[in-house]
Amino acid sequence: MVYFFNTSIESFNFTKHGTLMQTNNPSREYLLDYSRDEMKKYIQDMDMAPYRLEQLMKGIYVQKLSDFSGLTTLSKSLRDTLNKNVTLRTFKELKTIKSDNDGTTKFLWSLHDGLKIESVIIYEGTRVTFCISSQVGCALDCQFCATGKMGFLRNLSSGEIVEQVILMMINADKPATNIVYMGMGEPLLNLKNVIKAGEILSDPEGLAFSRKKITISTSGIAPAVRKLADMNTPFSLAISLNAVFEKKRRILMPVSKSYPLDLLLENIRYYTSKTGKRVTFEYILIDGLNDSKKDADQLIKLTAKIPCKINLIPCNSNDPNYPPTPNERAKWFADYLHQRGRTSTVRLRKGWEIQAACGQLYAKNEKTIGRKISESSKLITHV
What we know:
Blueprint: E1 3-5, E2 14-16, E3 19-20, E4 29-30, H1 36-45, H2 52-62, H3 76-85, E5 86-87, E6 92-98, E7 105-110, E8 116-124, E9 127-131, E10 135-137, E11 152-155, H4 158-171, E12 178-181, H5 191-201, E13 214-218, H6 222-231, E14 236-240, H7 246-252, H8 255-258, H9 261-275, E15 279-285, H10 293-302, E16 308-314, H11 327-339, E17 344-346, H12 360-368
Parallel strand pairs: 4-5, 9-12, 12-13, 13-14, 14-15, 15-16, 16-17
Antiparallel strand pairs: 1-2, 2-3, 6-7, 7-8, 8-9, 10-11
Helix pairs in contact: 4-5, 6-9
């Protein structure tokens, strides 16, 4: 099975043999897909009074109701009508695993069509991060990432992205301080729905997350980085770099064959210049592969004149070919960068014993129920 990218950067929708793949098609209208303006229009179309908008928003995003039965500010007949015609939930919780060491909590969800995604809550001091997925699977086949072994299946709708956050809020021990698109999938290949979900999540009358605390991550879709700059999106941007030499990066991250480092960095400079924002470079440290002094020197060179911070993350892969850099070496790497003018932080490995890294719980579940994870759905990437 071969998939092709739609050539329009505006949507980055995928097609299967030329037919648009739907992101979400439940039997009833899925209100989490609706922006405030779309919700307002829905209310008008249903001949409801305008003040119902505030009531619906409160029920969905403040009370976090799973249906309208408990929204007693509405009449019973209206609640019954809404429950018949719309839905607020399409997920089924298949598995939840919580780390005894650090509280990291991983969820495996089944979607309305039976496909599966993951979400993770990470606790680190006062920081609580919701790590959310943007696609089912991923096209980009990063060698250290379990999700890449799935291939691409479909985009998530904006509502499916939002539903992850709502369900995580219900289950979290503490309120979220940050939301990061660093779960399954490449967010910039589902740009329209990712941006729309961010707007829903940050709506002041809804979940009211700070836009600056919502981070969109990319493995390096260079044209979309430039597009984000032109759109002047309010969200933060992180770049998954992981290798600083082109030959090595093409092996670790095949996306670099389509968008080489030089092009990616050019577009990142354009982004920081146009938006006035700094970016975050995510750099996974792999023992003996990208953690040498030579790698550090090249990282310093590549990030020159780019307002940025660098997160160093010991690899959390289930592939023995990609072991994490030892803690002492990771600290040396961070200190070396810092001494040469780079802001860098070593992120602790979180949830490694519960397979909290992207795609690992999915892969374990698929093996458990006897399904083979096929690599036949890898994409030919012409954007």
